[in-house]
C-alpha cells in the first residue's frame, strides 16, 4: 500500500539522518511568499527555476494558484506570511497548460456523481450558500487569472502598500518565467 511505502521510507530517512541537508528555520531567508499551483510538474522545477532552496520562502499552493475571494484561505496564509513570518514580497505564479484553464465545473460534478454523490448532496452545498459552479470554476487564461489574483490582493484593505505583489507565469516544461505584473511599479 502507498502509505506503508511512505512510512517504510520515512523510517529509513530519519534513521540515517538524511534530513541533515534540509535543516533551516521557519522564517523565509528570501523574505517572500509565493502562491502557485499544485501541479506535479512544479514540485521541484519551480524552486530550481527560481533558485529557491529549503528555508528560502513561504509557499502556498492550490489548484490553479488562484485567489478566489479576498477572504479565502490563500489570502489568510499570505497575511500570516507577511505579519507573522517576515515575508516582504508576494509572488503569484500561474503556469501554462494548467488543469484549471477552462475547467468545466459540470465535468467535475459528473465525476462526483460517478462517485455516488447524489443530487441531494449538491443541494446541501447550495443550501450552504455556495454556488457550486462558481466554486469549482477554473479560469479563461492564466495571465488573466494571475492579474485577477494580484488585483484582489492589491485592493485588499489589510494589504500594506509597502509590500510589492508580483504576477508571473511559469512554463512547466522549461521553467521559463514571463512577467505579468511587476509589483514595484504599482
Ligand atoms: Zn496548474
Automatic annotation (TrEMBL):
Pfam families: Pro_CA (PF00484). Its EC number is 4.2.1.1. Gene3D superfamilies: Carbonic anhydrase (3.40.1050.10). Binds 1 zinc ion per subunit. SUPFAM superfamilies: beta-carbonic anhydrase, cab. It comes from Salicibibacter halophilus. PANTHER family: CARBON DISULFIDE HYDROLASE (PTHR43175:SF3), CARBONIC ANHYDRASE (PTHR43175). This is carbonic anhydrase. It comes from the Bacteria. GO terms for molecular function: carbonate dehydratase activity; zinc ion binding.
Amino acid at each position: 500500500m502507498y502509505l506503508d511505502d511512505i512510512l517504510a521510507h520515512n523510517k529509513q530517512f530519519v534513521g540515517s539522518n538524511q534530513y541533515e541537508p534540509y535543516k533551516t528555520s521557519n522564517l523565509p531567508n528570501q523574505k517572500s511568499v509565493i502562491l502557485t499551483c499544485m501541479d506535479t510538474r512544479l514540485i521541484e522545477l519551480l524552486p530550481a527555476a527560481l533558485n529557491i532552496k529549503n528555508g528560502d520562502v513561504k509557499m502556498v499552493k492550490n489548484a490553479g494558484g488562484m485567489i478566489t475571494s479576498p477572504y479565502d484561505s490563500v489570502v489568510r496564509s499570505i497575511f500570516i506570511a507577511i505579519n507573522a513570518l517576515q515575508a516582504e514580497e508576494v509572488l503569484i505564479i500561474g503556469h501554462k497548460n494548467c488543469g484549471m484553464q477552462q475547467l468545466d465545473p459540470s465535468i467535475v460534478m459528473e465525476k462526483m456523481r460517478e462517485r455516488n454523490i447524489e443530487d441531494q448532496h449538491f443541494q446541501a452545498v447550495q443550501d450552504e450558500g455556495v454556488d457550486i459552479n462558481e466554486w469549482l470554476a477554473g479560469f479563461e487564461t492564466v495571465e488573466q487569472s494571475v492579474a485577477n489574483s494580484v488585483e484582489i490582493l492589491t485592493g485588499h484593505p489589510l494589504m500594506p502598500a509597502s509590500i510589492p505583489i508580483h504576477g508571473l507565469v511559469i512554463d512547466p516544461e522549461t521553467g521559463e518565467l514571463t512577467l505579468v505584473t511587476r509589483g514595484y511599479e504599482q
